[in-house]
Amino acid sequence: MTTIMINKILGYVLLVLGVVIMVFTLWQSYNIFTAKVAAPLIFRTQVPLQQSASATDVQKQMNDAVKQQLNQILPPDSITKILNLTSWSLLAFILIMGGGAVSGIGVKLLNGNK
Hints:
rod-shaped
């Protein structure tokens, strides 16, 4: 088998591999943003700790009132959802760029034989 034939086969393999990476990433992004699949959980909401018995009732009532008001303005899960979507978007960007680079190498191998 000649070097030209090996380069051509490797070029096609890299081209197809890069396109598959990009299509898979775009398909996963579509499913995530249409809420068919949840975004990968990189960030999680912490479970609140129980307060110690030494806290006075007034402090506890004030803390509960503040928590209730904050939860009405900004639900606790919304920040983690935004962070998870942002991290997926960054990963998808990296995968698409990597797939494009792999496909580019495949195309260079195919064009280099002329």
